[in-house]
Amino acid sequence: MKGEMERLKRKAATASLAFNLASAILKTIGAVLTGSVALLSEAMHSTIDVAASLIAFVSVRVSAVPPDEEHPYGHGKVESLTAFAEAVLLLGIVVFIFIEAVHRLVVGGTVQKLDLAVGLMALSTVGSLATATYVTKVAKKTRSLSLESNGQHLFVDFWTSLGVLVALAAAWLTGLTNVDALFALFVSIWLGHQAFRMATRSFHEIIDRRLPDDEIEIIRDLLDNAPGLLSYHRLRTRLSGMTRYVDLHIVVPNEWSLVEAHDLADDLEKRIDDALHPAIVVIHVDPFDAGKLFDEKVRAGIA
Question: pTM for the complete prediction?
Answer without folding.
Answer: 0.57
